[in-house]
Amino acid sequence: MVEFSKALTAHETAIPGVVLYDLPVHGDNRGWFKENWQREKMLALGLPDFGPVQNNISFNEKAGTTRGIHAEPWDKFISVATGRIFGAWVDLREGPSFGAVYTAELDPSQAIFIPRGVGNAFQTLEDNTAYTYLVNDHWSADAQGQYTFLNLADETAAIEWPIPLEQAELSDKDKAHPRLADVVPMAPRKTLVLGADGQLGRALREAYDGDASVEFAGRAEFDLADPASYERNWKNYSTIVNAAAYTAVDAAETPDGRRLAWEINVTAVARLAKVAAANRLVLVHVSSDYVFDGTNETHPEDEPLSPLGVYGQTKAAGDAVVSVVPKHYIVRTSWVIGEGSNFVRTMHSLAERGIKPSVVNDQIGRLSFTEDIATAIKHLLTSGAPFGTYNVSNEGPAQSWADIAADVYAAAGGHRTDVTGVSTAEYFAGKDAAPRPLNSVLPLDKIKAAGFRPRNSGDALHRYLGSPSNEVRQ
Q1: Active site residues
Q2: Cβ neighbours, 10 Å, residue 425
Q3: Tens of pLDDT along 172-208?
Q4: Is residue 274's pLDDT more than 60?
Q5: How confident is the model at residue 474 (pLDDT cuts 50, 70, 90)?
Q6: Which of 85, 88, 107, 125 is nearest to 14 (CA)?
Q7: Mean pLDDT, residues 38-59 taken together
Q8: Torsion from C-alpha of 304, 307, 313, 315, nearest 10 degrees
Q9: What Å distances lie between residue 385 and 276, 380, 472, CA to CA?
Q10: 154 near 110, Cβ under 8 Å?
């Protein structure tokens, strides 16, 4: 008998991500009714918003019909429409819980969420049982090539079937599936890092060193300007990290530069946003302090965008595009320093050669080392931080470019007084240059509240200059 009027309740199981639900079933002498899938209520209980697209029903005429164990490349929300089943689920995902088993009897008053890669099997305990699947990908014959199978009689799983398998109705295919020792675990969905050969891309390679679930693509592997690059099986991915951008601030003011800036920073980002939204992927996008005009002393995440030049305008447009992707992180940075040509390396080289430069002293901000940006991105993705925009720079007092140059000179054994401060107007007088925000300080309260603490800028600078891998090449 179906138990009526249960409270909607979630029960964790021995398999990570597998959750059993009690469902309210309302019945009388005429029959019963239930809300089998109620998105708002179930999300409030913690069920992932997994985006179902297809509903399938398996009708089984006789008790003892046994199906599985099949791990499929999509998530499933499973319930019984009529009858009663014994369900068995085995974790066939790559990882420490591989081989974990959970079993339960289900009637119409229960449902269970099964993540991608967890093997699903059931045995009917009554005649005329209907078993339903709500799935978040469309079934196809090709998709069956991505299944992972386990034999129903596997001795390691040791499932205690109510009706012995020799008395049950099984398919020949299910009888032939491998034992657990011979099963190749289903690999997790991948994270795709674009712009992997740039400053931030190289830092992300180091942050994810040895992680086979992260795929890195430079321009040769994924050309953002080529529509054909976006044609791939996105169902095998969970996340896109866009570390690529057109960053030639002054060149963006030229006719050719303007076109390239819009192509890479906006058109390509719109394509990535479309892919992410259509496939329910997380999209990580790197923003810039140039989306603001610099008239405010600091720029919190919710400040209205007010870019000055073409580069800033394209970055602001890219932010606006990404903000409508349901699962997104916009990581806003300033004054990026990493492996490759940059301001710190230039100043270090000048100091070693005894050159006394004039450096802008009325632009105020903080350095953002790519090591910290990459670590912050990894933290956001692994911690489950709320989606949205996060400022990420190094911590410490705000400085001018001249202050930072003086720090570099001192670290290189020179004198701070070798650096002469000049205004932005003086420095760029007579030069074709993009307008720059004078204030670029990004408050870090939000990223700290999410559990990430950036390094002090001064400490990071000294480590950067002292690391053999970051020696300035002359």
Answers
A1: 70, 133
A2: 9
A3: 999 999 999 999 999 999 999 999 999 999 999 999 9
A4: yes
A5: very low
A6: 88
A7: 90
A8: -70
A9: 18, 5, 37
A10: no
